[in-house]
Specification:
Blueprint: H1 3-44, H2 56-62, H3 67-79, E1 83-86, E2 90-93, E3 98-101, H4 108-111, E4 118-129, H5 132-138, E5 145-155, E6 158-168, H6 169-172, H7 185-193, E7 197-208, H8 211-217, E8 224-234, E9 239-248, E10 252-255
Parallel strand pairs: 3-10
Antiparallel strand pairs: 1-2, 4-5, 5-6, 6-9, 7-8, 8-9
Length: about 260
């Protein structure tokens, strides 16, 4: 075989080897991500009651994965701040996410009552002209004053969400003297109107935390937060509460029960 052909052949073999290596690495990364998803579910549903994960070799056997894949999966969970490796102990759960249901209309304190005490730091509250998009959602003329409230909400002392709320002023005026630090707005609105809340339209998306939100939530700047936009109506259909809620994504999980309808 001429030297040039041997060089060409060798180069081709090298390219094949590199491609195969990349494929194996990609497959292992895919498997690690899949395993991390399964382990995350167990972490968040108290699947490890004593707070300690099984040994890597046990996880490898249980999930039919290689030790390298298990280590990569645990690295992913460690990067999320969910687990930590302690010498002489193993991998332990160091953070908890709290469940927030999407199939029932409740305030945050009602939703998380089994997990601790929710307190509210009222950062801003007062009348303000309604921006056009807010006015349209609340079915009031643009520029009409609404009650604007910004609250930092904590669960057991830890920052959980930053809530921006707009309420028609005929209802909001009564909230100015209310105990917003310890009471959900939902309960106060029902007391003020004498009506039950009826339904809410929600949108959930992930956004990057801006400088202000990150500082208030004590989260890294640019960290992903869960943004819940919710327009709540009274039982008679009147829209009374427009909220933009930024949740720390590392401390909350959203869940719901869905029924198929065609």
């Amino acid at each position: 075989m001429p030297p040039t052909d041997r060089i060409r052949d060798h180069a081709g073999q090298g390219a094949t080897t590199v491609a195969a290596h990349r494929t194996r690495r990609r497959l292992r990364a895919d498997q690690a991500r899949q395993l991390a998803d399964l382990l995350r579910h167990q972490l968040l549903t108290v699947g490890f009651p004593d707070g300690t994960l099984p040994h890597e070799s046990t996880l490898a056997t249980d999930y039919r994965a290689s030790r390298n894949t298990v280590r990569q999966a645990l690295d992913l969970l460690r990067a999320e701040g969910l687990v930590e490796r302690l010498p002489g102990v193993g991998t332990v759960v160091v953070a908890q996410k709290y469940p927030h249901g999407l199939d029932c209309l409740m305030g945050l304190a009602e939703t998380l009552r089994e997990h601790g005490r929710v307190t509210n730091e009222v950062r801003t509250m007062g009348p303000a002209p309604a921006p056009t998009p807010v006015a349209e959602r609340l079915a009031i003329p643009p520029g009409t004053d609404v009650l604007y409230i910004e609250r930092l909400r904590r669960l057991n002392g830890l920052p959980l969400s930053l809530d921006l709320t707009y309420i028609p002023l005929d209802l909001g005026t009564a909230l100015l003297a209310a105990d917003l630090e310890n009471t959900d707005v939902f309960r106060l609105l029902e007391a003020i109107t004498g009506q039950r809340l009826g339904h809410a339209e929600i949108t959930l998306e992930a956004v990057n935390a801006d400088t202000h939100s990150a500082a208030v939530l004590e989260a890294p700047r640019g960290a992903a937060v869960l943004m819940l936009e919710r327009l709540t109506h009274l039982a008679d259909g009147r829209p009374v509460d427009l909220e933009f809620i930024r949740f720390r994504g590392d401390r909350i999980t959203m869940s719901g029960l869905l029924h198929r309808s065609l």
